[in-house]
Design goal:
Structural class: mainly alpha
Strand content: under 5%
Number of strands: 0
Largest sheet: none
Order of helices and strands: HHHHHH
Helix content: 55-70%
Length: 150
């Protein structure tokens, strides 16, 4: 049986690693114009605007709803969406580790999660790009019972 230390160490390391990767840009509102527009759209939703009528983007309305929630944090909305993105990245990495564990040893599964956390930085997604948020429900769907034949 795994000790409590072995159970909590990998997730805590993945959280710390994700935070270390993003700390340099945390709080910076000028990382990418996409997030600025998502935040604008989320704020417009809160003011009663209708997506695709009063403002337009090719992204689904759910993304603007997510950013609308972050807009509720007022002057801290930039930090709020970046914190939400950090937590979504971490949760997705944990699910990837769980998925990889089906075909890989523990070390390999852990490295798959680490690589997932690094990849968005290399692809200009160090803030709150939409895949950071939608990869989480996709990974959750793949972790449903029955997907692996259980």
């Amino acid at each position: 049986m795994k000790s409590l230390f072995q159970f909590f160490l990998p997730p805590l390391f993945l959280l710390g690693f994700a935070a270390a990767l993003r700390i340099n840009t945390f709080g910076n509102p000028m990382l990418d114009w996409d997030e600025q527009y998502y935040l604008f759209g989320g704020g417009r939703l809160l003011h009663g605007d209708i997506p695709y009528v009063d403002f337009w983007d090719r992204k689904p309305v759910g993304l603007f709803l997510i950013y609308g929630f972050f807009h509720l944090f007022g002057p801290y909305r930039i930090v709020a969406y970046q914190t939400g993105a950090l937590l979504a990245l971490w949760a997705t990495a944990l699910l990837i580790r769980r998925m990889a564990r089906i075909i890989a040893p523990p070390g390999g599964a852990f490295m798959a999660a680490v690589i997932y956390e690094i990849w968005p930085i290399l692809a200009r997604g160090e803030s709150g790009q939409s895949p950071i948020f939608y990869n989480l429900p996709v990974a959750c769907a793949m972790n449903c019972p029955g997907f692996t034949g259980e």
